[in-house]
Design brief:
single chain, 183 residues, Arc Repressor Mutant, subunit A, elongated
Length: 183
């Protein structure tokens, strides 16, 4: 890896940390450069434009979620939908994942307005759906895609409840659904 590539990786890590700490509210080019410890010009040396800067940082945040998902349910493992839903609900409530899901909700909100959020949101949600589909233990002929999207909708809904109503409300919702599925 070249010096430039190493420095770019360091900048991307710093930017991802900045997003997790502040969300999308502090994403002017000047704020991003400051968070990365470089000048605006140097940031544009590593990336062609602000959209590329944000894309790289958001992709790094998404990679942290992918890592947590891989630990939660390793590749090749399948679970019944209710078990997978319960596991993903608990992941959503984990303290270390809360900033990731908060950034995700902000990306989704921004996706209706502008790039790169529209493309990033579509890519992330497709990847998450595919991850869920691959881990569903369901009968042949069952609609895996619809089931995956239902699970995804619930997980995203938990993130919204946590942001709007607090962790107690989100944990209560997760527990209520788990109780419904177990009875």
């Amino acid at each position: 890896m070249s010096v430039r590539e190493e420095q770019r990786e360091k900048v991307v890590n710093l930017l991802a940390g900045h997003l997790l700490e502040t969300g999308l509210s502090q994403t002017s080019l000047r704020q991003l450069a400051s968070a990365a410890g470089v000048s605006d010009r140097m940031l544009l040396y590593y990336f062609p434009d602000k959209a590329a800067v944000l894309s790289a940082a958001i992709e790094r945040v998404a990679a942290s979620l992918a890592g947590a998902l891989a630990e939660l349910v390793p590749e090749g493992t399948t679970l019944p939908p209710h078990t997978l839903l319960a596991q993903l609900s608990r992941l959503t409530m984990r303290e270390d994942m809360r900033p990731v899901f908060r950034v995700w909700v902000e990306i989704v909100a921004a996706a209706r307005q502008e790039e790169p959020y529209t493309t990033l949101a579509a890519t992330i949600i497709a990847g998450f759906r595919d991850w869920i589909v691959a881990r569903l233990d369901m009968a042949d002929g069952a609609d895996r895609d619809a089931t995956a999207m239902a699970i995804l909708a619930f997980v995203d809904g938990l993130a919204l409840v946590e942001i709007c109503c607090g962790m107690d409300a989100a944990k209560g919702a997760a527990n209520a659904v788990e109780n419904l599925l177990n009875h």
